[in-house]
Amino acid sequence: MFKPLIAALLIIFSSTSLARQVVNVSGVYFPPYAFGASEVTSRGLLPELIAALNNQQAEFEFIIVPTSLQRRYADLNNGRVDISLFENPRWGWQDIPNQSVDMGLEDAEVFVARTAQGRQQAYFDKILGKRLALFNGYHYAFAGFNTDPGYLAKAHNAIVSRSLDGNIMMVVHRRADIALVTRSYLKAFFESYPKYAKGLLISERVDQVYAHHAILRNNAPISAQRFSQLLEDLRQSGQLDAIFAPYDIKVVRQDN
Question: What separation in angstroms does the CA of 18 have from each of 15, 106, 207, 255, 256?
Answer without folding.
Answer: 5, 35, 46, 32, 30
